[in-house]
Amino acid sequence: MKFAASSSKSPIELLPIETQQAILSSLTDIASLQQCALSCPTLYSSYKAAEKIIISQVLFKQIGIGVLPEAVMALSSSRLKFIELESFTSANFQKRQPAPEVYTFKDALLISNFHLIVEFLTRDFVHKALAASPFMEPSGLVVPATPTEIDRIQRAFYMFEIYRNIFTRHYFNRQWRSEAQQGMFFQYFSAWQNEQLACVHDYLVQIVIPGFNEIAAHDVLWGSTNIKYATGPNSQHIQAILSQGLAHLHEIAMADSYAARRKLMYKPYPPWCDLFLFPAMFFSQSVFYPYDLNPSERIVLKQDFYRGDDSGPEYAWRWGRFYDAVVILFDSTPRARQSRRWAYVMWDRRRLDRWGVFAQRWSDTLVIPSREERELEREEGERMHAEMISSWKRREVIHLAGGYGWWEAGDEGRVEWVKGKSSPWDDEAKRRDCDLCLGAVRCAPHRLVLKIKTDVDC
Fold this sequence. Notes:
With about 450 residues, the protein is an all-alpha fold.
């Protein structure tokens, strides 16, 4: 490593080595540590003299002991071979393992950079969940998430990534990946912790759906192949996008234009996946939790993976299931998704008490549409479906004529054409440049284009 020569030392280079190491240890992430250590030979020497200690301290400071074990597990699970999957789950999920004390720089950098993604998603998750809550603080103000709530949410994001690493990398074993997920993953966690994973899943679905539907509504090729809009998590196209992991979903969340979102999600025919988290949740509706012998308490017999965690998530889950005749692993009904919007199993008991959650029945917090509203929703759905069918037919005609790219009803000027040409009907001279046309005699594609133009003018 070469450093720029300097005739005089900076003030930081004159500090004792212990002070330099303390400064390096106080940095907020591993990328900053790397930049600082490489800024001059003196700091680099101080860093190398206590490399492992400094790396560990920066990671603990950035991520925290409450989340670091899951961050390490997410990295480890991304490197598993097929034969290692079952042993990994039993070794890591029987009992929560402490975070290691020593890290290589490469691993630390990967963990640190991925945590920046988790932090971004957590902030957005908290903002949307608090905004969707049917309850309010007594003061009328929005109280920020506490450190324990943030840790809980971040752990759920990491568990989503761990689930993805375990169950999406070996598609050939379909039977193992669907039914055996209960024994390899879900059984190790309490009901409310599995519900926390479902909250994160539903949040990520809402990140993906708007961009996907935008492409489905405007792309010529997708329209010509009858790609339907996604209306919920049961879309196999949405599940395929989710299965690409948090890093990819973070890019989608950050994309600020149609072109950027299309670049991340578009393929000539979008991939589909019928074996990711939502199908596993749907299958799990036949998996029941046992109760203890006291029907008045109805406490679920399940060990808490995160021992010592606040009681809020458990009480919230029991509150939401108290009147159910049976208790299933996941509830895939719209009523459950309503509660997941405000992340009911993510909050501390103190917040839930301030909100007065347990003073109400769970069913009283649900928004149940009236008969008239359901009828209007049905009519709107039929109208949108008819428009979708009409757009499919129109885009199929344009695709056969050589068009591609953006399309919108009533505005087809942005459609692109083969060989980078603009619409052939924009300029008759451009049509005459076509190698397939013979003077005034149009080739088959341009005859079809002429028919399209005539239809539009009419």
